[in-house]
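Annotated sample (chain length 619).
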Amino acid sequence: MAWLPGWSNRMKLTYDSSKIDGTLSDFPAMINVSSGTGRNSADATPVFDELAYNFTSIDDNFTGTNGSELDSDLWTVTMVGGGTLYINNNRARITNIAGTKTLASAISKYSASGDFDAQIDWNLIGGPVTVDRAYTNLMVNAGSQRYYLYYQCNSGTWLFNSQSYDGSYHSEHSTNVTLSSTKLRITRSGATWTTYYWNGSSWTLLKVSTYMNSTAPVTFLFYAENYTSYPGFVVEFDNFTVVSDGIVYDNTINRKKIAVTTSDGITQCPVEIERWDATNKKAILWTKIPSLLSSSDGWVYLYYDVTQPDNTTYVGDVYDAVARTVWDANFMNVWHLSEDPSGGSLCMKDSTSSVNNGTPTDMDATNREDGKIGKAIRFDGSTEHIDFTTINLGTNHSFSWICKADSTSLWGHIMSSDNTDRISIDAATINMYIDNTPAGISHGTTIDEWNYYTLIRNGSTMYLYANGSYVNSVSCGTGTVSLYNIAGKDFASSIAFFDGLMEEFRASNIVRPAEWIKADYYSCWNDLFTFGEPESGPAIFSFEGNVYEKGVPVARTVRSYRRDTGELTDETTSNSSTGYYYLETTYSGLHSIVCLDDEGGLSYNDLIIGQATASGIGA
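Output written by the structure step:
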């Protein structure tokens, strides 16, 4: 079976066709990555072992090949407007081009707790001289506060500037000093923040901050930016060190170094990451599978490889554009209800392109508890609820949700608007009100038990499914259903709040078929996939080098071909500043490495393939 090129590890996830009563297209399946997961209670934690955030030191002297990227275990790099940041002569070089606003920055992937002392070397390589203005910076983020130590060129004068932010910006101190190289330093002792610069022989105190008082864990950032008049200039940073009481690692790092493919092992499916907790080795993923068959078991592959770059083309977090493609266009809204409700306005994310995010009322972080799938929201049956924007669904639609009721003595609203359209649940009945006219279907709801419910409305008939199985149908009103905008209570009254846990509320503007509902239940209950053992990929061989034109590094298309078959095995573009290229192949035999002598290179393909065949000369 084919293997996704360049990836080292995968697991085969085989779906049980007995859970699927008809062919399903573009189905959003849940993948629970944890210990004891799936139909066979498999151990999928090797995924986290492979993607563990491993390094021996947070200090960085930026050692590497010229033109290579910064250590991706330590830094997230951002480049805007043509600004670049790469390794040059074992330093981190930032180049800002003239004539346009550019910047480049690196922010740490870890944070430091307690007291700390952060230092970095700074060197001016070229420009600016007489412009207003250009910034270079060491910055520390501490929750809602930030502390900046600038060394900047302002109207031709170089100066150090300490600036803080606590909701407002405060310029705390500036000193005119012209240096071609120096060191920048920020410290925290308790709640006292201090900035220094190196005068060539010792540290010079710049400022003990008047405004900074945060003791929260901090992240570090260095950057350079041209500003007014957009000068071109080059700076280098080196010898970044941190002495700290403790280092805190982001347990979501490397979460996007995954891929899900169809059964061919190559065609990638979009993936949404609902939860990624590397510390406890638990993740909830959703992926769109092009086709699920009822006739025979099929499978997908979950790839994972710490050496891969983040797979942002196919993998995203909730609310990322690529993650929204997991949910087909008929999903009006998908709320996992797994976010921390203390996040304030619009913190409860909608996974669809509707971007209908919700705002909690009377909730804090304690309302977020373990749910059936991942995390869920507990409603108190009194005042707690979540406000959403109006949903307009017409006369054909599907609602589904997962809940565990703490009390059913009073009917509680699952979702409602005013006192006209709403869904409610009590100990005996699931109700949908359309134009304030109830349509109820009897179904006993057991307290303290998880249930998956689906309400289907097809014109004047309502259908109820419980835990994937059909319950009954009943006639209902014929008006359009709209104005649903609150989960958890009756918008027009102070009663009928839902009391219990709820998660995974979805609204579709079509009638979902029975086979979809059944498969979705088994998917949500982690009973659709059987996990295979971890598999290791084929060996990888590599080629690297540099491309020069008349002694000058250039960007050119570089390709590798198998000498015996002429098969193209890899392609890249050499770095425009260094000429560096890197190619990989899974074939151990002889290869031809071909550099195309124009920037596009497409006009030379036929010639090159002819040269690279077994009967050819080879390039």
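Annotation: The first strand starts at residue 9 and ends at 15.
Annotation: Residues 9-53+252-327 form one domain.
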